[in-house]
């Protein structure tokens, strides 16, 4: 927990992540397109791990009643600066594994950050708490970081450095403990097998963008749009999902 808070407070600017370059943009664009498929008028939406507000603020701009919960105070302060008087948005500083401070139930629960860091029992706690505060027939969307794309990126960038630190991986190349928790498709399916939800989709919003970072960051608008269309049309291809960097699991209560 301390390492994670330090990461967002001192080492990394979550506020500019989706705008940093072409490589980072697809995650937000296609994740929001996924969210939009399930939006209905007058929905009450809860976002867990809201960060600096990329999704919560956009949803509030569009008129939705949003509750944004965030663990890192630094991120929450930046989110609050973006709130306009006409937005219906409530902010809560809290932990996604314990939602006793949440009043009422929601039509949609977004968990687009906590699973990046939670491990084992805490991951299941977060999942169960998300289900508890979701209305019957409500939509839940969870984001994860895939185990294999970061590894493939490390193979590409610096194989010598990777091999010097090979003890960071298990014998089947699963990343060991870090500030981020990387998962496989099987681990995601195993997690959701422990609860009663109807699976609607599993997809990767950004695919192998990180592997092609140098090329994608040189794209002009037309080329970038072409890349987005490729990602959009292959996002839930079962043969490709596991190599995506970020993964979305969509379910119905």
Structural features, described:
It is a single chain. The protein has 253 residues and is an alpha/beta fold. The chain has one domain (2-146, 179-252): Vaccinia Virus protein VP39 (Rossmann fold, 3-Layer(aba) Sandwich). It is 38% helix and 20% strand. Strands 1, 2, 3, 4, 5, 6, 7 and 8 form an eight-stranded mixed beta sheet that branches. The radius of gyration is 18 Å and the shape is globular. It starts with a helix and ends with a strand.
Tally the helices: 10
CATH-scheme architecture: 3-Layer(aba) Sandwich
Number of discrete domains: 1
Strand content: 15-25%
The helicity comes to 25-40%
Uncertain segments: none
Shape field? globular
Q: For the record, what is the CATH homologous superfamily label? A: Vaccinia Virus protein VP39
Decide which structural class fits the backbone: alpha/beta
CATH topology: Rossmann fold
Gap from first CA to last CA: 29 Å
Main CATH class: Alpha Beta
Order of secondary-structure elements: HHEHEHEEHEHHEHEHHE
């Amino acid at each position: 927990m301390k390492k994670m808070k330090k990461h967002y407070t001192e080492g990394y600017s979550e506020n500019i992540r989706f705008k940093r370059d072409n490589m980072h943009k697809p995650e937000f664009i296609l994740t929001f397109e996924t969210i939009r498929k399930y939006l209905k008028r007058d929905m009450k939406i809860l976002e867990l791990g809201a960060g600096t507000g990329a999704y919560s603020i956009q949803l509030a701009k569009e008129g939705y009643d949003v509750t944004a919960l965030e663990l890192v105070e630094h991120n929450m302060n930046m989110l609050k600066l973006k709130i306009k008087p006409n937005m219906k948005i409530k902010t809560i500083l809290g932990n996604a594994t314990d939602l006793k401070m949440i009043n009422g139930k929601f039509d949609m629960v977004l968990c687009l950050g906590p699973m990046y860091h939670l491990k084992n029992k805490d991951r299941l706690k977060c999942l169960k708490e998300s289900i508890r505060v979701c209305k019957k027939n409500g939509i839940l969307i969870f984001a994860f970081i895939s185990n294999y794309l970061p590894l493939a990126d490390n193979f590409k960038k610096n194989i010598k450095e990777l091999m010097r630190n090979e003890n960071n991986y298990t014998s089947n190349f699963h990343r060991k403990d870090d500030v981020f928790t990387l998962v496989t498709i099987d681990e995601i399916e195993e997690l959701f097998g422990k609860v009663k939800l109807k699976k609607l989709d599993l997809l990767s919003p950004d695919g192998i963008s990180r592997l092609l970072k140098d090329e994608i960051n040189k794209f002009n608008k037309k080329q970038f749009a072409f890349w987005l269309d490729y990602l959009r049309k292959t996002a839930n291809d079962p043969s490709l999902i596991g190599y995506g960097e970020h993964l979305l699991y969509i379910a119905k209560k």
